[in-house]
Amino acid sequence: MTSVGLPAEVKDGERRIALDPIAVTDIVRSGCSVAVQAGAGVGAGFSDGDYKDAGADIVPEAADAWAQELVVKVKEPQPSEYPHFREDLTLFTFLHLAAEPELTRALVASGVRAYAYETLGTGRQLPLLAPMSEIAGRVAPIVGAYHLSSHQGGAGTLLGGAAGVPPAKVVVIGLGHVGTMAARGAKGLDAYVMGVDVDLDRLRTAVMEGVVDGSLASSEAGVGEAVADADLVVGGALVPGARAPIVVTEEHVRGMRPGSVIVDLAIDQGGCVATARPTSLSDPVYVEHGVVHYCVTNVPGQYPRTASRALSAAVAPRLRRLARDPRGSEDDAELAQALNVAGGRIVHPIVRAALEGAAGEGAG
Predict the structure, then answer these.
(1) Residues 141 and 278 grouped into a single domain
(2) Is 53 annotated as catalytic?
(3) pLDDT of 245-278, one tens digit each?
(4) DSSP annotation string for 56-99
């Protein structure tokens, strides 16, 4: 019987939990024991009593949850959690290692077997990333509209415009799952939405389905023209496991209107905007070249109940499979893609190439 640990999240503003009580019931029924840190689910609306009723043991300290064979989390471990790493630990969580060299070194040095939600899947299907991308995409136009307010440092532009006043222009970079949801949300607020992507079929579909008002094949010059008169730019360009490609350059940002807003949803993987740097829910924005930047690395964390339930529904069936043999999942195609670090080395080829490339750039 595999023991599963569910520690409380410690990242700034993070109130999600990886498993809701319904999922814990299923995990326990599958033959596992589950140790939940006291208070871990409170921020998402789940009490210790809810977890106890689901069959979990409530443990007082984070160390008690981390002491289990298989630890399941939401966000990448923070430096304060590194001392919990050990050779016989299996970790299942978001990792985003291409943008986290310090975390990568800690995992490799400790011998942890680490599985990443964001690379789990086959082909273009990323079933653990998708629910959080959906939520982040829905949030992007909301926070973008909020920070366009003059009271928040923006230009004072309303996304939907008004009678006799044209709507704001929203440019969405990358029409994958997160970008498509951002475009849908912006359209729902009556903005004019332009989608940018390298995939012409994806652009064609977005136009035909009314997700965007206009489309643009991605190129450096084209993106520069598109963002120059944009009120809101949403970055959603992503390569699973790798560092996000820089699509919006610093020169592009310099050319944007003062008081416009950038929401970079690719910031977990380094960001697709050259001027983007990670921010937190407690300090979400900064201004550079006159443009407001919102680069929060855990956007869904501000809607923890919805996000926890959505993530839990996707994580639970994969966790049950992983728990059958936490040290050997190579025969499971989905889980094999999720394995990032094992035996003191980086085993995911895309993650390894991204980190080696970053090291090479730093050495230059």
Answers:
(1) yes
(2) no
(3) 999 999 999 999 999 999 999 999 999 999 999 9
(4) PEEESSHHHHHTSSEEE-SSPPPGGGGGG--TT-EEEE---GGG
